[in-house]
Amino acid sequence: GQKVCLTFQGKPMAVMDVSSKWKPNKVKECKSLYGTSELEHPGALMVACERGEFYMGGELQGLSTPVRDFPCATPAEVREMLPDDKDVVAFQCRNPVHRAHYELFTRALDAPNVCEGGIVLVHPTCGPTQA
Q1: pLDDT tens digit string along 67-89?
Q2: What integer is the mean pLDDT of 19-44?
Q3: Burial of residue 30 (number of CB atoms within 10 Å: 0-12, 13-18, 19+)
Q4: What is the distance between the alpha carbons of residues 34 and 28, in angstroms, rounded to a whole number?
Q5: 3-state secondary structure of 34
Q6: How far apart are CA 8 and CA 65, in angstroms?
Q7: Vertex 51, ends 40 and 46: CA angle to 5°?
Q8: How confident is the model over 91-113, as pLDDT tens digits?
Q9: Can you say how many angstroms the Cα of residue 69 is from the centroid of all Cα atoms in its chain?
Q10: How far apart are CA 38 and CA 32, in angstroms?
Q11: Helix, strand, or coil here: 103?
Q12: How many CB atoms lie within 10 A of CB 54?
């Protein structure tokens, strides 16, 4: 397949060996992901206005990592920090953690498939938060 250089702020980040390319049905995508295709929804607006006409997929070869204004561990570094002998309940959210989130991930520790002494990994994502 064709090789494409993926950049962030002009810096090469990865090379993709394109194995598939398709024209998405964005209305169907938004209804499936967000339950609506109305442009008042920020996710639907992003799909309509910020994503290109075609989607591509394929194998990636990383070239570098982005420079951030805050510390950010790689997936391998996060795994290295976790204990080998404990179950891990992972929680990822793009919004600030509030009481309902806290209850959700702490109660997950009581699930029957989580062994005694399990731990919670709260993994924040970066990006726009809901208004």
Answers
A1: 877 788 888 999 999 999 999 99
A2: 95
A3: buried
A4: 10
A5: helix
A6: 10
A7: 20
A8: 887 778 889 988 998 899 999 99
A9: 19
A10: 12
A11: helix
A12: 9
